[in-house]
Amino acid sequence: MAGEFDFIDWIRRQQRTSEIVQVPAGDDLAVLKWNWPGRESDLLLVGVDQVLDGVHFDSAIHSPRAIGRKVMNRNLSDCAAMACVPVAALVSAALPRGQDIEHARELYLGIKEAADAFNCAIVGGETGSWKGQLVVTVTILGGADGIPPVKRGGAVAGEHIYVTGPLGGSLLLDRHMNFVPRIIEARRLASGNRIGGMIDLSDGLSRDLRQICTESRVGAIIQADLIPIHDDIMKARRDERAPLEHALHDGEDYELLFTTAEPVVGVECHRIGHTTDDPGIWLDRGGQLEPLEPKGWEHPL
Ligand SMILES: [Mg+2]
Q1: Rounded to the nearest whole angstrom, what is the distance from the C-alpha of residue 286 to the centroid of ligand 1?
Q2: What's the helix, strand, coil split of the chain in %, to 5?
Q3: Residue 86's closest CA among 67, 73, 70?
Q4: In this predicted model, what pLDDT tens digit does every residue of 92-127 receive, in sequence order?
Q5: Could you tell me the distance, in angstroms and rounded to a whole number, from the CA of residue 287 to the centre of ligand 1?
């Protein structure tokens, strides 16, 4: 069965090119030219992200407020990936039939709490109830506001690869439900540095790095001993997988992964490797190169 990324590629091939569409489907957000007569021009960034009960959260464990925060923060994290400013969001929720209005209110308050932290207005939406489980979808609108959007495809060979924070174990202690999207860091990075490619780490380092490399037509070598490993792995190890495996493949870290040629100024971050002309993606374990296979999360279709 085709994976999510093949499906996105297929959708992209169906579309005609347009002067208005500057970045089509396939990046963290699409970028549109938004010129109205008599107004200062800006770029509109737009994207949509959905969370499903049993896939992205578990309503038996997680509160509606936490679920609301997560879906909004995932969208805000996509804004961070493009270094744009979130402006407004629309929310659509399919509520399980029979659930009380208090539940829906809590969900909304979680969404609002996350949105308020970045001055993002909730400007509309839709609710319905059905016999299925909870599904929440947020459409996000952002503006470039003076900083050109940073794409996945902007990396070139010979750049350093960085992450903004430690990785792995996001599911072990529920960090995936409670994270701060790196919008402030992204704006600082993109205004003070020449960033090549950037993505937010939602699907795991091994898979998201591949997105940057594929879109940019470069390869990469990651140094195993430079990858910052999150404390959560040590605090909550419930399996035999090595900490490095968690950091490479777990996903839902929501840190930024980016490339740049110069040392980074203005934001604390960790250099983990470099991009190459050769298209392969490798993990360097003490001088031994092994292929870094993408094992992160891919939504089944
Ligand atoms: Mg993303």
Answers
A1: 31
A2: 30, 30, 40
A3: 73
A4: 999 999 988 899 999 999 999 999 999 999 999 899
A5: 31
CA of 199 to the centre of ligand 1 (A): 6
What is the 294 CA–ligand 1 centroid distance (Å)?
16
- Report the distance separating Cα 69 and Cα 134, nearest Å: 14
Reported as a single tens digit per residue, the pLDDT across 192-223 is: 999 999 999 999 999 999 999 999 999 999 99
Compute, in angstroms, the gap from residue 5 CA to the centroid of ligand 1. 13
Q: Which two tokens stand for residue 200?
A: 């937010």
CA angle 210/57/85 to nearest 5° reads 60
* Ligand 1 midpoint to CA 22 (Å): 18
Determine which helix (DSSP H) or strand (DSSP E) holds 31, and give its type and residue range: strand 30-34
Q: Residues 6 or more apart from 67 whose CB is under 8 A from it?
A: 51, 57, 59, 107, 110, 134, 136, 177
Secondary structure (DSSP) of 37-68: TTS--EEEEEEEEEEEBTTTB-TTTS-HHHHH
Report strand pairing: 256-260 vs 195-200. Answer: antiparallel
| Residue 254 CA to ligand 1 centre (angstroms) | 8
Q: How far is CA 131 from CA 56, 68, 96, 98, 301, in A?
A: 19, 20, 6, 9, 21
pTM higher than 0.70 for the full model?
A: yes
> Are the C-beta atoms of residues 220 and 282 closer than 8 Å to each other?
yes
For residues 161 and 220, give the distance between their C-alpha atoms in angstroms, rounded to a whole number.
Answer: 8
Residues 81 and 28: beta-carbon distance below 8 Å: yes
Cα 247 from chain centroid (whole Å) = 16
The encoded tokens of residue 202 equal 């939602």
Residue reference for tokens 């992450």: 163
